[in-house]
């Protein structure tokens, strides 16, 4: 499969790099041969790249870093797998002084099928410490070349299957154990579930979600804009907490997948003292969006949309919309079911002192199965549980998101320092207050890879010992002296012990009674069958006789249909329809008549004004394009860094001239008849 690629994560000391290049939207040919030529020309421009990271600049003239720069990169990015060194690729316009660098060429449009496609490069790969001190430009260039070749194969595979050019292809990177997986996803995919199943089977992955878009190492721009991480929203702040030591006798189950932490005073809404359950609901919905359970990606529900959903299901009156009334776990489940079609599970806890005995085991099972965040409502307060830890002594702690935080949004230090996100003891729950838990179900993905270790173990276990259930039942072999005796095998399954004779199949059962000798009870009826038949005969229409033909020689009858004596027509699909070429000729004639009428009108309006001939118009257009090409060449020769006044004025002058000439070219190309006004 050309859309997926897997590699092993290096166990040695390496530095992970990420390269981002934005080529923009271009016309890509739909023909495979011309697509290969397009990528060949694209690969030929790799020498003109400049890779920039802060003050580090890598180019063909400067292919390596200084020693201090490489040491600083290793020091600043100690965990480079989660925080890679990002290089941004740009074209070097001053690359070749002989004017052989990248340029924009104006060619005549060929009559080839093309489609708009946005090409972006996103490469994530490791390098050794020695590669930073050596020819780093060659390594970056090789990574871009390999990425573009993989991108080309993926694009050709999609063209072959769908016969259409996708709007873009995005590289998503996933981590599973020691594998780094890259998947090219188009913006929309009809059978994405089937595609993920094939990828799981090819890579021998387990059955739980791994390759969903929201689980990628680097969220896309749409995810960052709607769900975070950004200045307003934090994503998975519990990962910044110190981990629980693995050598302790503690069972820990924490939520899988990403979520967005929502709290008071976000999104420009002052919901202090009444909106905690609304914020908890938004956290639950964010998990559904990150996991891809709810698609396509959409903004989180606002307070008003939540209230409108509750009014729509009939739980609240119409005056509830726009109010500041708080909601509970039951309303949260109603809203999620109405807006997204996801059924939540509700668990009541009679008192806070019974919280651990009632809910702890359920939460462990819930999070181990891959369930989502759990909203807890009680005492006019709402919290969100994302993890549980049970020690060997029976003490239980809960990993809780507190939506009552009113500080600066996105300030992770303040949130973690004051335990707005953190582990809470059993005493966190008020002893006499009843609570209700709203649990999001795990993703419904019934697919299980046949290569999963548990599946292999279970399959081998059922093939041996007492678990073997396939094949004929084992029976004792007859003695050799009975081989020639008849009816020997009939008594094989009989039990010798007369005590167990009740388990032996009985003999022949009695025959069923003869239905002809059975007496049926005749039930009296008041319905006159004769009168009813007369009435139906009078009211019904007689059956139309089938047309036939009589052979007068021998008196035989034949059906008239299919005899060949009547006309029977078979019409094509386009019978009675006007051919398309006539519509096209009619359309061209109308356009020609309109153009001629416009010409006559303009001639009447400009009788005194001379008109440019076709040859003069072509010469004018050629001179404008020649002037445009010369100015555009001067513009490409400008330096990348423009810091002097003369350079800025020169750039502004060239931009103004190019805009004016492009406007004149569009005017000449868009008007076939041009009149010159003499002054």
TrEMBL record:
One of its GO terms (biological process) is proteolysis. The keyword Kinase does not apply. One of its GO terms (cellular component) is nucleus. Residues 584-676 form the Enkurin domain. One of its GO terms (molecular function) is deUFMylase activity. Keywords: Hydrolase. Pfam families: Enkurin (PF13864), Peptidase_C78 (PF07910). Belongs to the peptidase C78 family. This is Enkurin domain-containing protein. It comes from Hymenolepis diminuta. The lineage of its organism: Eukaryota, Metazoa, Spiralia, Lophotrochozoa, Platyhelminthes.
């Amino acid at each position: 499969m050309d859309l997926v690629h897997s590699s092993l994560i290096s166990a040695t000391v390496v530095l992970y790099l990420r390269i981002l290049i934005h080529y923009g939207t271009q016309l890509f040919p739909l023909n495979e041969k011309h697509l290969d030529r397009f990528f060949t020309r694209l690969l030929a421009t790799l020498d003109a790249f400049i890779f920039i990271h802060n003050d580090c600049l890598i180019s063909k003239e400067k292919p390596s870093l200084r020693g201090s720069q490489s040491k600083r990169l290793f020091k600043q990015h100690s965990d480079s797998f989660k925080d890679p060194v990002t290089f941004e690729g740009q074209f070097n316009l001053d690359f070749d002084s002989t004017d052989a660098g990248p340029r924009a060429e104006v060619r005549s449009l060929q009559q080839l099928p093309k489609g708009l496609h946005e090409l972006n490069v996103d490469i994530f790969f490791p390098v050794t410490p020695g590669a930073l001190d050596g020819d780093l430009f060659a390594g970056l260039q090789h990574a871009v070349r390999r990425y573009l070749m993989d991108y080309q194969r993926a694009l050709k595979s999609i063209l072959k299957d769908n016969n259409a050019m996708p709007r873009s292809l995005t590289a998503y990177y996933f981590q599973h154990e020691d594998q780094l997986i890259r998947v090219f996803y188009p913006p929309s995919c009809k059978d994405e579930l089937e595609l993920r199943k094939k990828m799981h089977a090819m890579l021998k992955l387990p059955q739980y979600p791994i390759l969903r878009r929201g689980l990628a190492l680097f969220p896309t721009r749409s995810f960052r804009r709607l769900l975070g991480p950004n200045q307003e929203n934090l994503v998975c702040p519990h990962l910044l907490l110190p981990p629980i030591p693995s050598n302790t006798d503690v069972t820990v189950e924490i939520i899988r997948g990403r979520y967005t932490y929502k709290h008071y005073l976000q999104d420009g809404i002052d919901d202090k003292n009444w909106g905690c359950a609304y914020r908890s609901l938004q956290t639950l919905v964010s998990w559904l969006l990150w996991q891809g359970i709810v698609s396509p990606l959409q903004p989180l529900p606002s307070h008003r949309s939540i209230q409108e959903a509750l009014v729509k299901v009939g739980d609240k009156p119409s005056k509830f919309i726009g109010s500041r009334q708080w909601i509970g776990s039951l309303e949260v489940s109603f809203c999620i079911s109405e807006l997204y079609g996801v059924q939540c599970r509700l668990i009541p806890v009679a008192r806070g002192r019974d919280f651990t005995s009632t809910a702890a085991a359920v939460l462990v099972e819930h999070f181990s199965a891959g369930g989502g965040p759990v909203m807890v409502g009680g005492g006019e307060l709402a919290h969100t549980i994302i993890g549980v830890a049970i020690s060997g002594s029976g003490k239980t702690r809960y990993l809780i998101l507190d939506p009552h935080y009113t500080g600066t949004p996105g300030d992770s230090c303040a949130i973690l320092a004051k335990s707005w996100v953190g582990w809470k003891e059993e005493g966190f729950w008020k002893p006499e207050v009843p609570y209700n838990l709203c649990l999001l179900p795990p993703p419904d993905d019934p697919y299980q890879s046949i290569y999963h270790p548990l599946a292999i173990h279970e399959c081998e276990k059922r093939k041996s010992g007492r678990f073997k259930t396939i094949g004929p039942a084992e029976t004792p072999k007859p003695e050799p002296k009975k081989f020639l005796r008849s009816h020997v095998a009939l008594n094989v399954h009989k039990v010798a012990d007369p005590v167990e004779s009740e388990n032996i199949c009985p003999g022949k059962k009695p025959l069923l009674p003869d239905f002809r000798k059975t007496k049926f009870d005749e039930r009296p009826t008041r319905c006159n069958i004769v009168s009813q038949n007369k009435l139906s005969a009078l009211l019904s229409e007689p059956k139309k006789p089938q047309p036939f033909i009589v052979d007068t020689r021998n008196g035989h009858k034949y059906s008239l249909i299919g005899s060949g004596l009547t006309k029977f027509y078979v019409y094509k699909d386009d019978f009675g329809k006007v051919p398309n070429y006539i519509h096209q000729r009619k359309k061209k004639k109308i356009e020609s008549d309109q153009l001629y009428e416009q010409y006559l009108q303009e001639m009447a309006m400009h009788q005194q004004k001379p008109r440019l001939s076709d040859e003069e118009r072509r010469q004018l257009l050629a001179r404008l394009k020649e002037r445009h090409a010369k100015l555009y060449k001067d513009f490409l020769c400008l330096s990348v860094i423009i810091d002097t006044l003369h350079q800025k004025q020169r750039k502004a002058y060239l931009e103004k001239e190019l805009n004016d000439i492009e406007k004149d070219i569009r005017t000449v190309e868009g008007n076939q008849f041009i009149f010159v006004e003499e002054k």
